[in-house]
Amino acid sequence: MRAWFKRPFKVRGYVVPSRRFTGWALFYCLLYFAVxxxxxxALLDVAGYLIAVKLLGGSCYxxxxxx
Length: 67
What we know:
two-stranded antiparallel ribbon
């Protein structure tokens, strides 16, 4: 399997271009992975803030407030 990526792959005598990272790959990676993960993190952060400050009556929100 390793040699399959080393030499040019041919189909009926035509050389098939090797795989490469493109701008569209970056766009789809951001759209379908990075943005949803960041949005979920932001929602969890807001929920944690509301629980800590509004419901529990804390004066701040974060790990340093515990000390």
